[in-house]
Design a protein that fits this description.
Distance between the termini: 6 Å
Shape: globular
Number of helices: 11
Largest sheet: 8 strands, parallel, barrel
CATH topology: TIM Barrel
Strand content: 25-35%
CATH architecture: Alpha-Beta Barrel
Strand order of the largest sheet: 1-4-5-6-7-10-11-12
CATH class: Alpha Beta
Structural class: alpha/beta
CATH superfamily: Aldolase class I
Number of domains: 1
Helix content: 25-40%
Number of strands: 12
Amino acid sequence: MNIIPAIDILEGQVVRLVKGKLQNKIVYSDNPIEIAEKLETQGADIIHVVDLDATLTTGWNNNNNNTEIILKIIDTIKIPVQVAGGIRSIDAIKKMFEKKAEKIVIGTLAYKHPQVLQQLSKDKVEKIVISIDQNKGIVMIDGWRQPSGFKVIEAIKFFMAKGVKEFLLTTVDRDGTLNGPDLDTLSYASNVNGAKIIASGGISSIEDIIRVKNIGCSAVILGKSIYDGKIDVKKAIAIV
């Protein structure tokens, strides 16, 4: 199982939101690059970097994003970077792959224009992670503000048929709360044959990580738990 620390960037700062709401913002650092270097030294195999400005506006096709910071992170650290947040065009996907992003997480774009996957080579599709941000069983898009029309398992099977193997599953009501993962939904999703589920949302302890591992998730995203000192990345990696 992979331990994947997250760096959420808003207005150039490392932050965490609770349930995706800006009014619940907590700022942890003014230096995302320094945080990435620190996580690398702690033994992380890959880092998940989210552009919240792009997510909450119209994506990377505007000036309100943190693209340059993300590219600097990719250039600075030696471990792979998984990029997410507001990637809503084929050009944005191709640019990130050209800049050596290891994996790219897409949500809104994939649900609105699934044909975009056909514009990528097979090896690139295998590096795409589809985000499944669910609320009461319905996948949410547009920064968690609109329903996609897909249920969780429907989405997984739909995109697996297009060559995608990996899914980032977040229960919106758990994100940033430290109230524990949504084990029921994660277990349900992990039972889809061939699907690799990355667990996200609510994880607050090593015990939570072990529970998520035991139900079959392939990886776990850690955010608020590491910034609040509840989970030590190095210890978590050693245990799992």
